[in-house]
Amino acid sequence: MAMGGKRFAILLCAEDSDYVKKVYGGYFGVFVRMLAEEGETWDVYRVASGEFPEDDEIGLFDGFVITGSCNDAHGNDVWICKLLNLLKKLDSMKKTILGICFGHQILARALGGKTGRNVAGWDIGVTAIHLSSSNHFSSLKIPATLSVIECHRDEVCELPPKAEVIAWSEKTGIEMFKYGNHIMGIQGHPEYTKDILLHLIDRLLNRDLIVESYAKEMKAKLGTCEPDREALRKLCISFLKGGL
User: Fold this and answer.
1) Model confidence over 94-109: pLDDT tens digits?
2) Contact yes or no for 79/53 (Cβ under 8 A)
3) Does the pTM of the predicted model rise above 0.90?
4) Which of 26, 132, 203, 216 could form a disulfide with 16 if both were Cys (CB 3.0 to 4.6 A apart)?
5) How many CA atoms lie within 13 A of 137 on its CB side?
């Protein structure tokens, strides 16, 4: 570990599939590949399995990333309630937090917003999100519309007080939000490859969460569009490490 390098923790809210484990070193590997740079230390806490940082460890980290999950962010599982408490504590310490998909929703809930099922149903595939005209991203030279991989049927229905919508799409009114300068949520999956999504579609189908005709249609559509992974990566890194 490089001395003086920044230190980050991934709060892992999903079980790794065998495929993602084998090919990417689990979701931890996926996130590290996207976000980590020279000289940093990245740790993981498997919060969905009840593994949380101790109070005296929290201060060691410059930032936290909350991942996606198969669980509902409006659920009250023991680990979700513990996570809500941890996030409130991190907010009070003004720690930098980036929430992705479930992470975006659970952050909104922890801060006083509301989450629930999206009336438009599942959004699976590559979605165009529109960045708000407020100037958060101007220095990054990022286009006003970005394509991001999505895989969700829940959404943030109501923002926490003082939070600001910074991106929206046709299906989802709150695709991204910021809260102060230290918290940002993204409904999409900047970290996903199309390959990860294809395997996830199969898992959802095997669990009867989606029907076969829909799975086929989504897979066919995926062939025709590319996510803006580099721009999204830049956006996440500059938020986590520079505060947009």
Assistant:
1) 999 999 999 999 999 9
2) no
3) yes
4) 26
5) 23
